[in-house]
Specification:
CATH class of the largest domain in chain B: Alpha Beta
Strand order of the largest sheet of chain B: 6-7-8-3-9-10-12-11
Strand order of the largest sheet of chain A: 6-7-8-3-9-10-12-11
Helix content of chain A: 25-40%
Helix content of chain B: 25-40%
Number of helices of chain B: 10
Number of strands of chain B: 12
Number of helices of chain A: 11
CATH topology of the largest domain in chain A: Rossmann fold
Radius of gyration of chain A: 21 Å
Order of helices and strands of chain A: EEEHEEHEHHHHHEHEHEEHHEE
Distance between the termini of chain B: 29 Å
Structural class of chain A: alpha/beta
Shape of chain B: globular
CATH superfamily of the largest domain in chain B: P-loop containing nucleotide triphosphate hydrolases
Oligomer: heterodimer
CATH topology of the largest domain in chain B: Rossmann fold
CATH architecture of the largest domain in chain B: 3-Layer(aba) Sandwich
CATH class of the largest domain in chain A: Alpha Beta
Number of domains of chain A: 2
Shape of chain A: globular
CATH architecture of the largest domain in chain A: 3-Layer(aba) Sandwich
Largest sheet of chain A: 8 strands, mixed
Largest sheet of chain B: 8 strands, mixed
Chain lengths: 339, 324
C-alpha cells in the first residue's frame, strides 16, 4: 500500500469565545488529520465544537468575540493559522484549495444574483481566467454534479431551485475550483433522505474518482457508517475518541460514544426495547469540569474520575483507535450509575 | 371489533391556487389527495414521508385546523365536519398537538406554571388555587420535570426540557389523541432518546393514542405500531412498523429505506442502495396515474394512466401499486 499523503494536519487547536459571561472554550486542544482520498467524519452533538473546529482552521471564526489561542493547521506545507485572516494568501486557500459546504445552501448563496454569476465569479477569481471562460467552466461543473439543462440553470436564481439542487451548486463550486479538500458542515441535514442519498453519492464520487478529501461534520451516525473511513467523536470541545469507522461503530471504547450508539433510534433494530438515553445534558462551555467533561453523565464514572486531570487520548485498539477515558469499560469497569 | 378512535376516510385537502388581484383560480395544490387510515384507542399510527408529501396537512385536518375538501374524519364515530359547535368544542379538547419547535410554540413571557395553568383551565371548570397547584405539579412530574421548573420561563429551559413542557401542556387537557408533528427532530440525539422513551411510557400510563408525524423513519418506528408511508398526498403503503423494515413492498418505500443509512456497520456495508433520480414533483402538477411513476423502476404502461388504489396484499399490509 502506498504511503498516504497527508492533506491537512491540525495539532492542538484551541479556540475560545470571550463574552460578558466569561471565556467559552469551544475548541480545547483538538488534533486531527485528513489524508488524500479519505472521508473523515467529525461527529458530535450541537455545541460540542465540531463546526468551530473547521471554522478555526479556515479562519472564519468571527473575531471578536472568537479568538484562536493556539495550535497549528498544516495544509500543503503551510500553516493556515499563521496566515493573516482575510489576506490574499488565505483567500487563495479558502474556496480555491479548500471548499466549504454549509448546512443551509440558501444562506450561502446570494438570493439576488443568478447561479451563473456567482459560480463564475468564484471560478474567475481562483483560476485567474476571464469571465467568459469561467462561465463555460461553470456549466461544465453543473453538468458534473448532475444538474440537467446546466446552460439554462446558470441563469436561474437560487430560489428557483430545490434544496438538493442548491447543495449541488455549492458542490459544483468546489468541483470547478478543483479544491483538494472539501469541508462539509452537516451538508444533508436540511435535505430529505432520498435527496441526501443523491448528494452524498455525488460527494463520494468526487473522493473516489478525483482523489479529493472530504471532512464531513455530522451528528448522523448512519451517514458515518455508510460513507466515512475514519471518525473523530467530539464532546464539549475535545476529541474523545477516534479510529476507523468500523472500530468506532462496532467497538466503541469511550462511554460517550457508546452512549450515543445506544441512544439513537435504529432503523434495523428491534423496537420493543426502550432506547437508552444519556442522562443529563452537555456541560456549559464556560463552566466545564476540570477533569473529564463527560464524568457527570458517565454511567461508568469512578470516584477519582472527577479529581484526575483531563484524560489524554490513549491507544485502545488497532489500527490507531484512540479514546480519552481513564477506564477500560470492557474489562472490569462496570456501570456504577444506572439511569 | 370496536370502532376505531379515529378514522380518516378518503381525505382530500386541495388548496386553490389563484392569480392576480381578482384571485382567479388557476389550479389546485393537492396537498392531501385521498388518504385513509384508522387509529385504535391506545395505539399509535406513524406517518412518514419527505417534505411536501402532505403529512402535516393530514395532521392539521385531524385536529380540525384545516377543513377537508372532501372525505370524512370520524373521531369516536362523530363526523367532525357535521358536529355541532358544542360537540366540536368538547371533542377538540381531546385532540392535542405537540409541535416540532418547542421554543416557537411556548409563550416566552409566560412561566411554565402559567402555561400549564392556562391549559388546565381550558375546560372551563372552576378550581381552587391549591387544586391548580396540585395539577401542575402532577403534570411536571409526569413529564419528569423538577417541581422547581414551574417558575422558569421557556428561555431558561433546554431544548429537551421545553419539549417536555410542551408535552405537559398537551396532557393538561387529558387528551385521547395527540398529534405529534416532528416532535424530536429539533433535539440532539442523546435528548431525542429521552423524549421518545417518555412518549412510550406516557402511552402505557394514560392509554393515549398518537398520530406521529415525522420524516425520520427510525424515530417513527420506535413509537408507532403501524406506519403509513406518504408520497405526494397519497399513502402508498401501510403496514406494521416491524414489517415495514423487513418486508417493504412499494418501490418508493424500498427506495426510502435504502436511502437511510443504518448505524450497524457490518449490515450497512452489505446493503443495496437505490438512488432515486430527480426531485419530488410539485403537488401543483402531480403526475397522472401513480404519482411515483416518473421515478419508479417498476413503472409500466398503466402506471401513467390509472392511479393505483391502496389494496390489502396480506393481513395488515396494504400497498398502492399496480406491480406488487
Amino acid at each position: 500500500m502506498p504511503e498516504p499523503v497527508r492533506v491537512l494536519d491540525v495539532r492542538d487547536l484551541r479556540t475560545s469565545f470571550f463574552t460578558s459571561q466569561g471565556e467559552f472554550k469551544a475548541v480545547d486542544g483538538v488534533s486531527y488529520h485528513v489524508d488524500r482520498g479519505e472521508i473523515v467524519a467529525i461527529a458530535g452533538e450541537s455545541g460540542c465544537g465540531k463546526s468551530v473546529t473547521q471554522m478555526s482552521v479556515l479562519q472564519l471564526v468571527p473575531s471578536p468575540p472568537g479568538r484562536i489561542l493556539g495550535g497549528s493547521a498544516m495544509f500543503e506545507g503551510r500553516n493556515l493559522l499563521a496566515l493573516e485572516p482575510r489576506s490574499k494568501a488565505m483567500r487563495q486557500v479558502l474556496g480555491g484549495e479548500i471548499a466549504m459546504i454549509f448546512q443551509e445552501p440558501m444562506t450561502s448563496l446570494n438570493p439576488v444574483l443568478t447561479i451563473g454569476r456567482q459560480l463564475s465569479e468564484v471560478i474567475a477569481l481562483h483560476a485567474k481566467i476571464s469571465r467568459r471562460q469561467a462561465w463555460s467552466r461553470g456549466v461544465a461543473a453543473l453538468e458534473a454534479v448532475g444538474i440537467p439543462d446546466a446552460e439554462q440553470r446558470m441563469r436561474s436564481y437560487p430560489f428557483e431551485m430545490s434544496g438538493g439542487m442548491r447543495q449541488r451548486v455549492m458542490i459544483a463550486t468546489a468541483v470547478a475550483c478543483d479544491a483538494k479538500l472539501i469541508v462539509a458542515d452537516e451538508p444533508t441535514t436540511a435535505l430529505d433522505v432520498t435527496t441526501q442519498a443523491q448528494v452524498m453519492e455525488l460527494l463520494l464520487d468526487l473522493v473516489k474518482k478525483d482523489g479529493k478529501s472530504l471532512v464531513i461534520i455530522t451528528h448522523n451516525l448512519g451517514l458515518i457508517s455508510r460513507y466515512a473511513h475514519r471518525v473523530y467523536v467530539m464532546y464539549a470541545g475535545n476529541i474523545i475518541e477516534s479510529g476507523t469507522t468500523e472500530a468506532l461503530l462496532t467497538g466503541a471504547k469511550h462511554p460517550y460514544t457508546r452512549g450515543l450508539l445506544n441512544a439513537i433510534p435504529r432503523l434495523e433494530a428491534d423496537t420493543d426495547t426502550d432506547l437508552v438515553p444519556i442522562v443529563g445534558a452537555p456541560p456549559s462551555l464556560n463552566d466545564r469540569p476540570s477533569g473529564c467533561a463527560f464524568e457527570p453523565r458517565c454511567p461508568f464514572a469512578q470516584p477519582d474520575c472527577r479529581t484526575r486531570p483531563f484524560p489524554e487520548m490513549r491507544l485502545v485498539g488497532q489500527p490507531n483507535h484512540y479514546a480519552a477515558c481513564h477506564l477500560d469499560i470492557d474489562a472490569g469497569a462496570s456501570p456504577v450509575r444506572v439511569s | 371489533m370496536a370502532d376505531p378512535l379515529l378514522s380518516v376516510e378518503n381525505l382530500k385537502v386541495h388548496f386553490p391556487v389563484t392569480r392576480g388581484v381578482t384571485r382567479r383560480p388557476i389550479g389546485a395544490l393537492k396537498a392531501v389527495d385521498g388518504v385513509s387510515f384508522a387509529i385504535n384507542k391506545g395505539e399509535s399510527f406513524g406517518l412518514v414521508g419527505e417534505s411536501g408529501c402532505g403529512k402535516t396537512t393530514t395532521g392539521k385536518s385531524v385536529l380540525g385546523l384545516i377543513a377537508p375538501s372532501s372525505g370524512r374524519i370520524l373521531y369516536k364515530g362523530v363526523d367532525l365536519a357535521k358536529a355541532t359547535q358544542a360537540e366540536a368544542k368538547a371533542l377538540r379538547r381531546e385532540r392535542q398537538l405537540i409541535f416540532q419547535d418547542p421554543y416557537g410554540s411556548l409563550d416566552p413571557r409566560q412561566s411554565a406554571f402559567s402555561i400549564l395553568r392556562e391549559a388546565i383551565a381550558a375546560d372551563g371548570q372552576r378550581r381552587s388555587g391549591a387544586d391548580i397547584q396540585h395539577e401542575v405539579s402532577v403534570l411536571l412530574r409526569t413529564v419528569e420535570l423538577g417541581a422547581d421548573m414551574g417558575s422558569r420561563f421557556p428561555h431558561e429551559l433546554s431544548g429537551g426540557q421545553r419539549q417536555r413542557l410542551g408535552i405537559a401542556r398537551a396532557l393538561a387537557c387529558k387528551p385521547e389523541l395527540i398529534v405529534c408533528d416532528e416532535p424530536v427532530s429539533a433535539l440532539d440525539v442523546s435528548i431525542q432518546a429521552q423524549i421518545i422513551n417518555l412518549f412510550k411510557s406516557l402511552q402505557k400510563i394514560t392509554g393515549v393514542s398518537y398520530l406521529f408525524i415525522a420524516h425520520d423513519l427510525a424515530v417513527v418506528r420506535h413509537v408507532s405500531s403501524h406506519i403509513g408511508v406518504m408520497y405526494l398526498g397519497n399513502i402508498v403503503e401501510i403496514t406494521g412498523s416491524k414489517h415495514l423494515y423487513s418486508n417493504p413492498l412499494h418501490p418508493y418505500t424500498k427506495a426510502l429505506l435504502s436511502a437511510i443509512p443504518i448505524t450497524d456497520y457490518y449490515q450497512e456495508q452489505k446493503r443495496a442502495r437505490i438512488v432515486l433520480k430527480g426531485d419530488v414533483p410539485s403537488p401543483m402538477n402531480k403526475p397522472s396515474g401513480c404519482p411515483f411513476h416518473p421515478r419508479c423502476s417498476l413503472a409500466t404502461e398503466p402506471c401513467s394512466v390509472i392511479p393505483p388504489e391502496l389494496r390489502v396484499v396480506e393481513p395488515g399490509h396494504s400497498v398502492a401499486c399496480h406491480n406488487v
